Amino acid sequence: MGSEPKSFQLSESIHRYLLENGGAPDSVGQALIERTRELGRISIMQIAPEQGAFISLLASAIGARRAIEVGTFTGFSALCIARGMGEGGELICCDTSEEWTSLGRPFWEEAGVADRIDLRIAPAIETLRSIEEDAGFDLAFIDADKSSYIAYAEELLRLIRPGGLILVDNVLWFGAVADPEINDERTLQIRAFNEWATAHPRCQNVMLPIGDGLTLIRVL
Q1: Which of 31, 76, 140, 143 has the greatest number of C-beta atoms within 10 Å?
Q2: What pTM was computed for the model?
């Protein structure tokens, strides 16, 4: 389990209780978390374990068979999505780093989900635009460069079926989005995405204070 709670306003003791009573990673997931932690501060890019459990449950609950992930890092979120889809599922993972994604491959193999994951090393927007089929996917997860969040989501609206879900991480940005005194570039980019998602006529969205803020968009 992560040593520091990432979800908003959780003390370490409540975070531990939360995981112990629903959402703690299994041995493979925990091993991947620990391997990622060895990278140092950059490991904060990995989603929280409770986010992984939530995303996996959602994938299972909606019967997702085809999914897209934008931003894979070391592969914990991909592991969770692939498990949630079950056998025969297909997850396209978009990332630009062979180095980081290679850390996840052994854990995907150990968990028995490697055959469900199609990792594509290229700029994510290029990968998304290369997928010609419209409305053929059930689920998407965005956790990548904040400057492109709107561009990624616009492409995914073309690819996700009506009723399907787009999940977006870091939408609270450690609380900065709610502080009018903070106006750095990334904060402004995330605010712009949040406003876009709220206003878009094809997006029915809810923002949850899990991890660093997770928005669920139901595609209309």
Answers
A1: 140
A2: 0.95
